[in-house]
Amino acid sequence: MSSTRLPGKVLKKVNGMTLLEYELKRLERSKTIDKIVVATSKNPEDDAIESLCASMGVDCFRGSLDDVLSRYADCANKYPEHEIILRVTGDCPLIDPVLIDQVIKVFLEGEYDYASTVPLGKETFPDGMDAEVFTKSALLESAANAKLPYEREHVTPHMRKSGEYRCGGISADKNYSGYRLTVDNPEDFEVVRYCMEHSALDAGYLDYVAMLDAHPEIRGLSAHYVRNEGEIR
Q1: Does residue 228 come out as left (phi exceeding 0), alpha (psi in the -120 to 50 range) or beta?
Q2: Domain boundaries in the chain?
Q3: CB count, 10 Å around CB of 62?
Q4: What is the number of other CB atoms lying within 10 angstroms of the CB of residue 122?
Q5: DSSP 37
Q6: Which of 3.10.129.10, 3.90.550.10, 3.40.630.30, 2.30.170.40 is the CATH number of 9-177?
């Protein structure tokens, strides 16, 4: 809720439904996920997120605001029966459950420690389709060894860049990385709101791409933003 660029973004509403609720309902369409937990902070501002989760019957874990890596590790330790963790961020309400199932399948079949929709940092899917899956052991080792502030904030850089883990992933059939379907800024929200208002809950990322191609004036609202600007900085 304390986002600086768009405060309260995860609870902004479209057609009476918050972005977080919409994202959770899309995640529930995955055929592979067997447990969903919202990992938010202990800040009083985020009491509203916990209340939303309670109303939906979704588990909510609360930890550090800035050290998101420790938040993930503490959350994982609360669920010892789960050895494989999927990470998606709360600002991706249009996350595609089909892509999630695909990346989990690759992770399992390749016996990787880490796999994502951005393998080796090569972005091919739209921004907002980022999903990462990793072993609990890789997470806990990263939490113990990662030192840089950006490693702590962004959770997985140590896994991806240390060379200590076997990494893989999936790529799109062509480069769609120029499309923004995430919510970081007010203009992003307008784009995502348009997509939500003009599509069904089960729409896939290619449906959104086609929609933005048909309406370049909508796509252009957020086209000037740099992908992963926070991590780059």
Answers
A1: left
A2: 9-177
A3: 18
A4: 10
A5: E
A6: 3.90.550.10
- Pair 113, 134: CB distance under 8 Å: yes
> CA-to-CA distance for 124 and 75, rounded, in angstroms?
30
- Alpha-carbon 59 to chain mean position: 17
- 228, amino acid identity: N
Q: Which H helix or E strand runs over 79? A: none
* Of residues 232 and 131, more confidently modeled: 131
**How far is 216 from 149, CA to CA, in rounded Å?**
37
Can you read off the two tokens belonging to residue 130?
């980022």
- Which residue, among 80, 71, 86, 229, has the nearest Cα to 153 in the 3D structure? 71
Strand 167-169 relative to strand 114-116: parallel, antiparallel, unpaired? Answer: parallel
Q: What is the pLDDT of residues 73-90, one digit of tens each?
A: 999 999 999 999 999 999
Question: Contacts by 117-123 with C-beta closer than 8 Å and gap 24+?
Answer: 117/169, 117/170, 117/171, 118/169, 119/167, 119/168, 119/169, 119/170, 119/171, 120/167, 120/169, 121/160, 122/171, 123/177, 123/227
Adjacent-strand bridge partners of 133: 86, 115
Residue 214 is predicted with a pLDDT of 98
pTM for this structure? 0.94
Question: What are the respective helix, strand and coil percentages of the chain, to the nearest 5?
Answer: 45, 15, 40
DSSP character for 226? P
